[in-house]
Write a structure and sequence with these properties.
The structure is a homodimer of 225-residue chains. The first copy, chain A, has 225 residues and is α+β, with helices and mostly antiparallel strands. The first copy, chain A, is built from 5 helices and 10 strands. The longest helix of chain A is centred in the middle third of the chain and has 16 residues. At the A-B interface, strand 5 and strand 6 of A face strand 5 of B. Chain A binds a DNA duplex (27 and 27 nucleotides) through helix 5.
Chain lengths: 225, 225
DNA sequence: GTAATAGTGTCTGTCAGACAGTATGTG
DNA sequence: CACATACTGTCTGACAGACACTATTAC
């Protein structure tokens, strides 16, 4: 078997959140060439000595660049070709993370590099490399999974109410859902547990708080929403 | 940004088919170290000069090793860590292909290397690297997609009958399906077209032949089977 | 009491699965 | 004709969505 030169490989992470009712991505401004000063996905190289595997490398990069330990991360897709990077044939392992909108607010200032949330909807910012395509793939993955999984629950803080959760689904799907049917689905899926005794106070009937049950991965509903 | 040594990357292809009512994988016996003489997935290196992108590289490798142009191939998942290859930290872009059981029979003898179909069920052969895990991931992907996609149609030759297709679904799902309901689903999904005039002859009522409509990708049913 | 939102009960049209019945070929 | 398998029609129970009703808090 002949030895071919291995292409340069990187890891990039698409971090999505829901802010002000809109889906947003976390972007960083690049310092170095190529694409210096362009906005790009947080990413980096694999460190063979430190990283046990690809997932660990993705988690390390995310933590180093943003200070976030995300509650949900999955491998999105690999992208590789001769055009995406002017330095030659490269490939990237793209990851896909969801976080609660308020999880990053405090940490953001701590990092020296320029970091910002960008709206998915509307005028697309021009991104470095093929990152626009990677973001599009992540959004499309999220949108398709919303219909039949519990994934959007990771866009909320650890404790939340059922009306909160329903709003998240509605914002991503872009349509209203029936309250009764929605609650039936969530109850059947059995991935939530009430936080005993706790209620969210309000000047009306307060809502029960829930959290995702321990050890529950993403739940696939047997019917679509 | 410091330059880290890029890990060695490869591409491996899990080719699945249905033979004798069983799901089977295509394996090849390795010639070179590491894992010389072990059974492994067909795979190879990226050739930056030849391969436009990852998908093209996977197609080239598949064609070179087996003579197959598969009708269906998708990226499965990337696997990378420090243990899977004794040479050090490596990663592989795993692909997932489905072919009709009779598509390879003739070509197989043409290739000098030892190639064979192995049953998924029963005693698992010990595979080189982490290929057992990759095969398991591919099978699990197929099984989960069978429930709500038209994917299994690619396990059949270009022309087939609805009873053929139903048998494929039943074999993978491991349970009987209602004929009437099954045909309703396929009709709704509208990804098949009758081959005009052609019927499969038999000593009973012959079945209508169908083929997958041009330009139809994998169809997601709106309900589970 | 009113206002506001949380949470539940009920009713109805639709539809999936079960199954029986019809169609079309061979010999 | 019998037989085998392809294909279709019908009936029924279950259930999703619509929507109305009740519950619980603050003021």
């Amino acid at each position: 078997m002949a030895e071919f030169e291995s292409p340069l490989v990187t890891i990039d992470v698409v971090i999505l959140t829901l802010r002000e009712g809109q889906l947003q991505v976390l972007l960083m401004r690049r310092g170095a060439e190529p694409f210096a000063r362009w906005w790009a996905l947080p990413g980096g190289y694999i460190h063979p000595e430190e990283d046990a595997d690809l997932d660990a490398a993705a988690r390390r990069i995310l933590l180093a660049k943003t200070g976030i330990r995300t509650p949900y991360m999955e491998q999105l897709q690999a992208f590789g070709d001769g055009q995406r990077d002017p330095r030659g044939w490269t490939a990237t392992f793209a990851y896909f993370a969801l976080i609660a909108s308020d999880a990053l607010v405090l940490k953001q200032g701590a990092n020296a590099e320029e970091v910002a949330w960008w709206q998915i909807k509307g005028k697309p910012v021009e991104l470095a490399f093929d990152h626009a395509r990677i973001v599009a793939a992540a959004v499309s993955r999220l949108r398709s999974k919303v219909e039949y999984t519990s994934l959007p629950a990771h866009l909320l803080p650890p404790k939340f109410t059922l009306p909160d959760l329903q709003k998240v689904y509605e914002q991503i799907l872009g349509r209203q859902l029936d309250k009764s049917a929605f609650r039936k689905r969530m109850a059947e899926a059995a991935f939530l547990e009430p936080v005993a005794g706790e209620k969210r106070p309000a000047s009306n009937r307060p809502a029960q708080l829930y959290r995702i049950k321990r050890g529950r991965g993403t739940i696939f509903f047997d019917r679509t929403l």
